[in-house]
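Give me a protein, keeping tokens residue-aligned:
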Amino acid sequence: MNTDDLEQFEAERELQLAQEYQDVVGMFRFAVETDRRFYLANTVDVAVRADGARPLVEVTLTDAWVWDMYRKSRFVPRVRVMTFKDVNVEELPKADE
């Protein structure tokens, strides 16, 4: 496999992932972005575990979908993220809005 083949493969996987996102986004209530991943989830709990200059943030997601083109299954029942970085949680509009 040469470089062009690999780039074509990755571009196709990214397109498939974007299409899957469009298909599933309506099933979820929240969009969550961390420094490493993007998630869709129906339940999100954010807790600060350590105060200070760099607070430790724990994010627990249930009934989630993970934006990751290399995962076999992007649907996961529970995700726990520990980070010192920013976490963005957005409530998604309902399908009928």
About this structure: The longest helix spans residues 3-24. The helical segments are 3-24. The chain has a mean pLDDT of 91.
